[in-house]
Structure to design on (290 residues):
C-alpha cells in the first residue's frame, strides 16, 4: 500500500513539473529591492506567468532568479511587471503610486538610479532604460518599428482572408504559412507596453490557428480556425491603431448560425466564410482607424 502511495506521489510531482516547465528557458539573476516575506510573495506573483516566466526572490540578498521563455517574452518585460507591482529593480523604478500602496513592512529604502521609471501601461509613456545593453526595453519610443512589425502580420492576415473569399484552400494554406513567419518575426521587446500585453495574450492562439490553416487544404477546417484567428486579430488591431482604416465585419449565418466576424481593408462585404455562395452576406459593425 505504501508503495502505491509513493508511486502516486512521484507521478503527481512529475506531472506538476511537466505542466510548469518553461520552454526555451533562459535564467538570469537580477537585483530586485524589497524587505520581507510579503515582498517575496508579491514580487514572485508579478513575475510568474504560466509556462512563460517565473521568479525566485531571496529576501537576504535582494536578488531574484528569473527564468523565462526567451521566444515569448524578455527579461525586461518581466522586470517591468515587477516594477508595476511596486518594486524597484536594476532596470526599472516602480511608479511612486505603486510604491506608496505597499504595506509598511514592505516599504524598502529606495535608491535613485539611472533606470526607467515605469508608468501604468494604459498611459503608454514608459521610457526605456539607459545604458544597459541588450536589456534595453525601447518599445515606448519606437512606435514606427512596432507599426512596421505588426503591419506585416495584418497584411498577411488580409491576404489569407482574400484566399478564403475565393474558396482557395491551397492559397489559404500558403498565406497562413506566411502569417506564421510574420508572427514569429515580431520582436516583442520592441512593442509598446499596452501592445505587448495584448500580444502576449493572443500570441499562442494566433500561432495555433495559423498552423492549423497552413496544415490543411480543407476549406471548411480553414474557415473554422479563421473565426478565432479573426477574433484575436481584432483584439490586437484595436490597440495598434492601423494607419489605414480597417472594417470589422460580421456574418450572422456563419458558425452554424451563431455568427462570425472578420477584418477587412474594404468597406464592401466579401464574405470569407461562404465565398461566392453568399459573397455579400454580412455587414460592417465597427470601423477602426487612428
Amino acid at each position: 500500500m505504501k508503495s502505491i502511495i509513493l508511486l502516486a506521489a512521484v507521478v503527481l510531482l512529475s506531472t506538476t513539473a511537466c505542466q510548469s516547465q518553461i520552454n526555451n528557458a533562459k535564467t538570469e539573476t537580477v537585483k530586485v529591492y524589497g524587505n520581507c516575506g510579503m515582498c517575496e510573495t508579491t514580487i514572485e506573483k508579478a513575475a510568474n506567468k504560466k509556462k512563460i516566466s517565473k521568479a525566485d526572490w531571496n529576501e537576504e540578498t535582494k536578488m531574484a532568479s528569473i527564468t523565462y521563455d526567451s521566444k515569448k517574452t524578455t527579461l525586461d518585460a518581466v522586470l517591468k511587471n515587477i516594477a508595476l507591482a511596486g518594486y524597484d529593480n536594476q532596470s526599472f523604478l516602480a511608479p511612486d503610486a505603486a510604491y506608496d500602496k505597499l504595506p509598511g513592512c514592505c516599504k524598502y529604502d529606495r535608491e535613485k538610479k539611472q533606470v526607467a521609471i515605469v508608468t501604468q501601461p494604459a498611459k503608454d509613456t514608459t521610457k526605456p532604460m539607459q545604458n544597459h545593453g541588450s536589456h534595453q526595453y525601447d518599445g515606448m519610443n519606437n512606435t514606427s518599428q512596432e507599426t512596421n512589425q505588426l503591419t506585416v502580420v495584418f497584411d498577411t492576415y488580409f491576404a489569407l482572408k482574400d484566399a478564403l473569399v475565393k474558396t482557395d484552400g491551397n492559397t489559404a494554406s500558403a498565406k497562413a504559412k506566411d502569417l506564421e513567419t510574420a508572427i514569429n518575426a515580431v520582436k516583442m521587446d520592441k512593442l509598446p507596453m499596452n501592445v505587448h500585453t495584448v500580444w502576449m495574450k493572443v500570441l499562442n492562439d494566433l500561432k495555433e490557428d495559423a498552423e492549423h490553416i497552413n496544415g490543411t487544404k480543407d476549406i471548411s477546417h480553414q474557415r473554422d480556425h479563421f473565426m478565432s484567428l479573426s477574433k484575436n486579430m481584432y483584439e490586437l488591431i484595436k490597440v495598434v491603431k492601423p494607419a489605414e482604416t480597417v472594417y470589422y465585419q460580421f456574418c450572422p449565418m456563419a458558425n452554424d448560425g451563431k455568427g462570425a466576424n472578420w477584418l477587412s481593408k474594404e468597406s464592401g462585404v466579401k464574405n470569407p466564410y461562404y465565398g461566392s455562395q453568399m459573397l455579400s452576406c454580412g455587414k460592417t459593425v465597427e470601423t477602426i482607424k487612428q
Observations:
- DSSP finds eight helices and eight strands in the chain.
- Residues 4-19, 121-144 have pLDDT under 50 and may be disordered.
